[in-house]
Amino acid sequence: MKDRGYLNQCTNLEKLDELSSNKSITAYIGFDCTARSLHVGSLLQIMIFRLLQKYGHKPIVLLGGGTTLIGDPSGKEETRKVLKKKEIKKNIVSIKKIFMNLLNFKKNSTKPVFVDNFSWLGKLNYIEFLRDVGSQFTINKMLTFDSVKTRLEREQSLSYMEFNYMILQAYDFLKLKQKYNCILQLGGSDQWGNITNGIDLIRRKLKKEAYGLTTPLITLASGSKMGKTEKGAIWLDEKKFSPYDYWQFWRNTDDKDVVKFLKYFTELDIKYIEEVLSKEKNINKLKIKLANEATKILHGDSKSKKAEKTALETFKLGKTSINLPTTKIKKELINNNLSLLDLLSNNNITSSKGEARRAIENHAIKLNDNLIIDKNKTISLNDFKNDVMKISFGKKKHYLFRII
User: What number does CATH give the domain 242-316?
Assistant: First the structure.
């Protein structure tokens, strides 16, 4: 983990290192289910899960059916949207499918366990919980946590509901320790306070030791937070973000981030990475290596190779690859004077009609490789060749539309 740069903070690194070297341990990560998919910002902790499995340890994927009803205030400047139970359940089912690709389910001793914390949080008796668990926390300490301090310093409202989140997360760790002998919680750097709360609770209630480990906050060379682009999140569900777009995301990595991301998001041996770096001076070849390896982990080898082939056909050979992200469009929609602005914004090629208009003004939109300068253009059947039309936004984003 150290060699790959995964470690930010650990409560007792020497002791945890000794334990994990001598026996199999169980570790967990909690995921709030606020959407149908996780995004790439969660990937670093999942890469640690894969590493733990490789060395014989067991991961617990905690899907927060209970805590999602409240919302984690960590890193947030305003209250999260409160979701309904039915919506959260759908999100949990969808997120589980992503883990089927990312983790190893073949070996029983390291097979991941899925748990939903609603199974215990939904049964809590409020008075008993306040006496047994709430009594272990002081307001003084809770007010020192960054997730609370930041909101209060900015005079942004923090609901009592959100304020309770850190206690519920600590209780999760306690329950997992009791039921599965889980001794390690993993999380992003913003989870440090929540994690240490759980360790303190386990120590007080069970008189046993547990450990916490956080990963560093990943910022891109541009200064922006990992996982977001101008178009939105880089989702791990291929229904929301295609394998080709995922491949392109890694291929377009800033030169300054390539080495770091090869260590973070691939499973190439560290010595091999250093060897390749010493020999390969073409940064674009390294980016392709990164894109291939990262896409293979999430979507499999065949889809990774297909994405690379599509990129080669599109960018180097100048072809309209049939494997580009394709949207089906009804003929009657085209016959009803569909504007190019609507087509671009409604299909998330641009974030809005305003952005679409500016893109045309800046000569960034091409239709079948022909530059578009008319903001009022409507799409007609003549724009389709063999029922297929290609739209390009800048040099790197290409999309196909197929008549059905």
Answer: 1.10.240.10
